[in-house]
Amino acid sequence: MGVRRVHLWLGLSLGLLFAVIGLTGSALVFYVGIDEALHSEARSDALAPAPGWSSPVWDRALATGRAAGFDPAGKWSFEVTGEGGAIPARYYPPSPPGAAHPPRQMVWFSPDAGRVIRVAPWGGYLMSWIYELHMQLLAGDVGMQIVGWSGVAMLVLLATGVIAWWPRGSWAKALAFKRRSAPIRRLRDLHKLAGVGSGLLLMIVTGTGVILALPSVKTALFATAPVADPTLPGGTGPIISVRHALRVVKRTVPDGRLVFIDVPGDADRPYRFRLQVPGDPHQRFPGSYVFVDRRTANVVTIQDVRQGGTGTRLNAWVRPLHDGSIGGLPIRILAVLIGLAPTLLAVTGFLHWRRRVGHAAIRTTTPRHRGRR
């Protein structure tokens, strides 16, 4: 089977899925801002003072959540956005051993953490639904596997497209768009130029998406394992406050930027603080952690990306390359445009194929008239 035929049938098979993943990915580049625009009560405020290391709001938010009826046995994850305004958090309800985990709740607290101002189940509001569609096709772990392995096939689709296009002669001719040619040729040129213009970046975005969707592939490539909370022996005594633990973390990693505060429901499990350290490219989901015993205030363990090997450093770039967060606004806009490219490629490729099939059918059914001898 030739390269062109492989490209054709992969495109016809995966084009719609590629378009859906691309469009949802484009929407997710600005998903926090879009969600805030749809829910103004939970909006952040870049001009207001941001709670930080010594702020009492983290302990107050924990108390407010429990007073609002959230099970104390559940886990809280507070996001430190670096801005004022509403405080976003994730709440993970407890589940019996061996049972499926109930869906997490997204909770927003008032700026002083004294009130719960918004609660929504993950997947139950627009932007989280788009996220689940993008990552898992709304089908959980099975859907994530489908997305991941389909991404491998999409990489083959992109590679065969480049091979089929690669000029054998004039580059100027290969890159030309013939505006006055027949519609079928214009479709081919548009498909060709869209693929050439976006191909490399699409391969990067698709390849990093495969790594994110398939943890087994990531482990094989980078020799990394998911971050697991260390197990502590059962203890007695009072639980230290989040604010107290933050002082310990600040002394331990003074150049770290606080990003997430995780508070487990089990008192024998440590606080977990997620930090961005110099050299880590992702601002929202960095890869360094500090675990602090909730009774003794001792640092249990530190996972610092700077102390990892080459695989750890490469893995730190996967997510920011995928979501366009490695740069400022121009890079994020480029990421949106790249997400639109699969739809353009799918539409132009399908229409070109349909016209070719139609022309072939006409040639087959049209009788040939022979002249007189």
User: What global shape is seen?
Assistant: elongated
Q: Strand percentage, roughly?
A: 5-15%
Low-pLDDT runs of 5+ residues are: none
Q: Can you summarize the main beta sheet?
A: 8 strands, antiparallel
The count of helical stretches stands at 12
How much is the average pLDDT? 92
Question: Can you describe what's shown?
Answer:
With 373 residues, this protein is an alpha+beta fold. Among the domains are: 143 residues; 89 residues, Nuclear Transport Factor 2, Chain: A (Roll), CATH 3.10.450. The strands form 2 sheets. The chain has an 8-stranded antiparallel β-sheet, with helices on one face. α1 packs across α5 and α4 crosses α5. The protein is elongated, with a radius of gyration of 26 Å. The mean pLDDT is 92. Keywords: Membrane, Transmembrane, Transmembrane helix.
Entry summary:
The chain is of the alpha+beta class and 373 residues long.
Question: What's the helix and strand layout?
Answer:
Elements: H1 3-28, H2 31-38, E1 44-45, H3 57-67, E2 75-79, E3 84-85, E4 87-92, E5 105-109, E6 116-121, H4 126-136, H5 140-165, H6 171-174, H7 183-213, H8 215-222, H9 242-252, E7 257-263, E8 271-276, E9 288-292, E10 299-303, H10 310-315, H11 318-323, H12 329-365
Antiparallel strand pairs: 1-3, 2-4, 2-7, 4-5, 5-6, 7-8, 8-9, 9-10
Helix pairs in contact: 1-4, 1-5, 1-12, 4-5, 5-7, 7-8, 7-12
